């Protein structure tokens, strides 16, 4: 039972870290042109 006092706050911190990383990626434009990146695989050099 005592381990929950450690695991619950750590999981909350992890969720905030993941949400912050997702917000940062969206804010920086990482997902703006998803279709173009998928088509780039099939192009020949």
List keywords for this structure.
45 residues; membrane; transmembrane; Cbb3-type cytochrome oxidase assembly protein CcoS; transmembrane helix; Cyt_oxidase_maturation_cbb3
Task: Summarize the structure in words.
The protein is mainly alpha-helical. The protein has helices spanning 4-27, 34-40. The protein is built from 2 helices and no strands. The protein has one domain (4-40). It comes from Ottowia testudinis. The chain crosses the membrane at residues 6-26.
Give the number of domains: 1
Determine Rg (CA atoms, Å): 18 Å
- Fraction of helical residues: 55-70%
Q: In oligomeric terms, what are we looking at?
A: single chain
Overall structural class, as computed from helix and strand content, comes to mainly alpha
Q: Tally of extended strands?
A: 0
Shape estimate: elongated
Topology as H/E string? HH
Which stretches are poorly predicted, pLDDT < 50 over at least 5 residues?
none
Distance between the termini: 59 Å
- Largest β sheet strand count, sense and barrel closure: none
Number of helices: 2
> Approximately what portion of the residues adopt beta-strand conformation?
under 5%
Q: Can you give the mean pLDDT?
A: 89
Protein name: Cbb3-type cytochrome oxidase assembly protein CcoS
Transmembrane segments: 6-26
Keywords: Membrane, Transmembrane, Transmembrane helix
């Amino acid at each position: 039972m005592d381990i929950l006092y450690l695991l619950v706050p750590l999981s909350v911190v992890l969720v905030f870290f993941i949400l912050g990383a997702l917000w940062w990626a969206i804010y920086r434009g990482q997902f703006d042109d998803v279709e173009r990146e998928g088509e780039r695989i099939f192009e020949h050099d």
